[in-house]
Design brief:
22% helix, two-stranded antiparallel ribbon, 5 helices, Umud Fragment, subunit A, elongated, 10-stranded mixed beta sheet, 34% strand, alpha+beta, 211 residues, Arc Repressor Mutant, subunit A
Length: 211
């Protein structure tokens, strides 16, 4: 690879360490503080050089749109983190269209094997313990495949239209109603009118947040 300055090498090391600790790339301001750089414009200048020399990829439309070429070579991909989802009682979400993948300012790098070739995968941060028996803990991240239909028993992000709330549950179609079942023996299911339920996506993988 081409020769780079000591500052640029420190930036690369910081990006790598930040990713390994957090599971997603740093923002420009994170790099500024972490590398004791005077301004974000200086960070941006050095990132431009690193991109030109082939060390990183950048998406300037995304706040954490950095990817180390070495990560890409190991089969990593960026997935947008588009919000939180309740694994407990439903939590308010402003509007269904607020889950806008294109507008997401945060991403997480995950192995491509986790998505198994699926397109338009997105991620949600989990709040609550209602899915703990399915090994989904508070603070974990779930990878979601966009879909409006699921099979009985599949875990899904469910939008409750009248309440303008979203929840993460196993979905069961029953006569005249939808049962949203927690994976926690201490919690009761939620029953909803089918007309009030919109499936936003189904869980395809869980990213465990350690520490």
């Amino acid at each position: 690879m081409p020769k780079i300055s000591e500052r640029q090498r420190r930036i690369l090391e910081f990006i790598q360490g930040f990713f390994e600790e957090r599971g997603y790339p740093p923002s420009i301001r994170d790099i500024q503080h972490g590398c004791s750089i005077s301004s974000t414009s200086v960070v941006d200048y050095n990132l431009d050089i690193l991109e030109r020399e082939g060390y990183i990829r950048r998406d300037r439309e995304v706040s954490r749109g950095l990817e180390l070429k070495s990560l890409a070579a190991r089969g990593q991909m960026e997935v947008p983190v588009i919000g939180h989802i309740a694994a407990g009682e439903p939590i308010p979400v402003p509007l269904a269209d607020a889950w806008d993948i294109a507008a997401s300012a945060e991403t997480i790098a995950v192995p491509r094997d986790l998505t198994r070739g699926r397109q338009e995968v997105y991620a949600l941060k989990v709040k609550g313990l209602s899915m703990i028996d399915a090994l989904i803990d508070d603070g974990d991240i779930v990878l979601m495949q966009p879909t409006s239909m699921v099979e009985n028993g599949e875990m899904a992000a469910v939008w409750l239209k009248s309440e303008k709330e979203a929840t993460l549950k196993r979905v069961y179609a029953e006569p005249g109603r939808i049962r949203l079942q927690p994976a926690n023996s201490l919690m009761q299911p939620i029953y909803a009118d089918p007309a009030n339920v919109e499936i936003q996506g189904k869980v395809i993988a869980v990213v465990r947040q350690l520490g």
